[in-house]
Structure formats: C-alpha cells, structure tokens
C-alpha cells in the first residue's frame, strides 16, 4: 500500500486545517479513506442513530486541492486504503499552519515500527544574514483497517431528498441556533418552493420561529425514467432534528469561501452540504427525531 499527497496552495492548506479542526471537535476518531480519484475524511457515525459527517476532496485535478496525489490500495480489485487515527493528533500535526505560512504540506503513509501518516511541511524563516527553509515533520500513528471491516464506514451517498434550499450565512445561523438550543431539544426546518426557510422551536409555553426569504429552493429529485414512479412532488418539506447537534456543527465550521445548501427528506433526514473551493465539500446528515 502506498499513499502520498501534496498541497501547496495556502488557502487550500488553511481549509484542510479547518476541516480537521471541525471533525476533531465532533468526534475523537478520524477515518481516512484513500481512493484513486478522491480522499474522504469522516468521523465515526454514532451507533445506530444515522448521523454522518464527512469531507470529500477531488484528487483528479493537478490544479485542484492536491498538486500531487499518488496511491496504491490493498490490491487491484479493492484499490482503496482505510485508516483511522486520533483527530486531535492530526490537528496538532497541522497546528503550525494556523498562524504561519508554509510552502507545502506533504502527507505520506509510512511504516516504522508501526503504520504512521507522515505530515511534512516546509516554511521560510528570514533573519539578517540568511534565509532558512526548515522542514517540520510529524508521524501520526494510524490503524490500517482490514478489508473485512470496510463496511463499518459506509456512507449513505444515494439518499433521495425532496427539497434543496440555499442557506443563509453561517454567522447568522450560529447565533440563531445558539439561542434556540437553550429553548428546546429539537428544531424543525421548513423549506418551501417559495424560496423560504424557517427554523421553529416549540415548547409547552411558546413557539419561536425564524424566517429567511429569497433563498433559492428547488426540487431535489433528479429527472429520469423512474420519475413517474416516485410522485413525491412536494412544495414544502420539513425535518425536526436535535438542536444541540445542529448548533454544534455551526459552532465548529469555519471555512473561508463556502456555499451552504440544506437538503431535506420530508420528516426523515436533513443534509447540510458545504461546497468549498477546488472541488471539495463537507456533508453532514442528521436524522429526524421525535416527529409526530
């Protein structure tokens, strides 16, 4: 097995750090899935509750997120690598770039006395006499997941949603959800084809609703030969989810340039998608809870 990837764009490096930082706050274990055309980062889904968080980075473009990307999986039939590590360890290895510029970051799977993911970066230090380019290196212990256990980390990639609506700014939602999480354990998101998004919390005493207008909303169903067999042509869709879990996501997300979209499967699931630059995105799925 081999894996080597290089990032040398400063903004991409910062975005990668933000992804790892976000994931480390949500879960302690990070799953890294290396495929020929993409790199997947995900957290372990909570047992039996249908919650998923993952990041997918396109690795096919040399002018994209990675300037170099090479991998060789366990065999030709199963050309992938699954490995797990402590998200906090990965974050510590990248922490230097939070306040310092680096020329590149190189990720490489190595084996010393145990499998490790090597993180190497180069920086430039200028003093009165010399210009130095020291290298900073870390080795993060990883556990390579055997083929027989890959199905434990399957991601629901083919979920059919009903409506897809653009979302307001993360800053706006962060402040709003921070208040709502103290009012009720659940919040209901309503999206309509009139380009409106509402967030509603209900208690025995009061109902508090926040409304956003002029957000583009479209049907999430893809047209195809089976369209007539699935007549769910909804003009409104809603999903009630755990307020604290949704608020925790927006408390940790901190991307530079991102487009946020909410995909709603009526009364069943909420998907928040964060599209970043250079063909990378983060997906978060929360199942509906306590809906009557």
UniProtKB/TrEMBL annotation:
InterPro entries: HUS1, HUS1/Mec3. GO terms for cellular component: checkpoint clamp complex; nucleolus; site of double-strand break. It is found in: Nucleus. Keywords: Nucleus. It comes from the Eukaryota. Its main location: nucleus. GO terms for biological process: double-strand break repair via homologous recombination; meiotic DNA integrity checkpoint signaling; mitotic DNA replication checkpoint signaling; mitotic intra-S DNA damage checkpoint signaling; nucleotide-excision repair; telomere maintenance. Belongs to the HUS1 family. PANTHER family: CHECKPOINT PROTEIN, MITOTIC AND DNA DAMAGE CHECKPOINT PROTEIN HUS1. This is Checkpoint protein.
